[in-house]
Design a protein that fits this description.
Elements: H1 3-20, H2 46-58, H3 66-84
Amino acid sequence: MEKYEEWEDRKVRHRREYHEEKRGRNATEDLSCNNCYRLHEWYRTEEIKEFWKWYRKLVPAETYNRNTLRGIDNLLIKNKEELSS
């Protein structure tokens, strides 16, 4: 099974197990779930929107959430640390 198909399968299982069947901690985890990791509108800055427009040209991503922004922040912090060493 290709990676994308694995991700799609996990997304479907998570939605069913967590949101429909209410299994809680026993449900499949999906870090891309926009219901679980919803972004408030004030997170959607012009800078993030421009980054996302560029990123979607490279990767077949559909949406972003809090986990996406956390990852971007971690990369920026790591980059700053490497530049200052």
